[in-house]
């Protein structure tokens, strides 16, 4: 081992001290580059194309998003006025949410349009369509994202997918817990637990509302249903 280390140190010293050795190494490197110049040129060209493509995609998506947000303004207005059909399909002049999703995919505007469309379909009892759009939505805003989880839970409850409903209600309740919305999500979660026959989990969820959200609207209902379930469990 010591001989190998000594030889390595000697070779390194020779490389530093001997100009002829350095020149020889450089000549070998230049020869290698000349022999493989086409390969290196191809790799460089591919890298330039790739970087250029990424930059173009990002800039194009940003421009599309700005355009889509402007075009979606009227659809949001229709939604807020409960003119949901106009919000979905547009008014012949301004596009609706469905056109925004189709024409501007991968944009923030299309992402938000999926939320609006999903909530509209849910109100119209088109639960499969609602799920299709709501599950494509994601948000950095925790309050909006938790609302989306809750709506996904609602659609699954209506379709009889109780386990999926429970999973989404739990996500809704655990995402940025707060005194305004979390009790609502917990209440839905407790109902879903009872629907699936998980009485102990339902009681525990009602207890959480009772102990942690006693100022909420759901508090009285949670106490009532908790007592009812405890009575059933004791029989």
Quaternary: single chain
Unreliable runs, pLDDT <50, ≥5 residues?
2-7, 47-60
Based on secondary structure, the structural category is mainly alpha
Summarize the helix and strand pattern as letters.
Answer: HHHHHHHHHHHH
Number of domains: 2
- Terminus-to-terminus distance: 80 Å
Helix content: over 70%
Main β-sheet description: none
SS summary, helix count: 12
What can be said about this structure in brief?
With 235 residues, this protein is mainly α.
Would you kindly provide a written description of the structure presented here, covering whatever features stand out?
The chain starts with a helix and ends with a helix. With 235 residues, the protein is mainly alpha-helical. It has helices spanning 2-17, 19-35, 37-80, 84-89, 97-103, 108-123, 127-134, 142-159, 162-174, 182-195, 199-212, 218-234. The protein has 2 domains: 18-138, no CATH class; 140-235, Tetratricopeptide repeat domain (Serine Threonine Protein Phosphatase 5, Tetratricopeptide repeat, Alpha Horseshoe), CATH 1.25.40.10.
SSE layout:
Layout: H1 2-17, H2 19-35, H3 37-80, H4 84-89, H5 97-103, H6 108-123, H7 127-134, H8 142-159, H9 162-174, H10 182-195, H11 199-212, H12 218-234
Spell out the key features of this protein.
mainly alpha; 2 domains; 12 helices
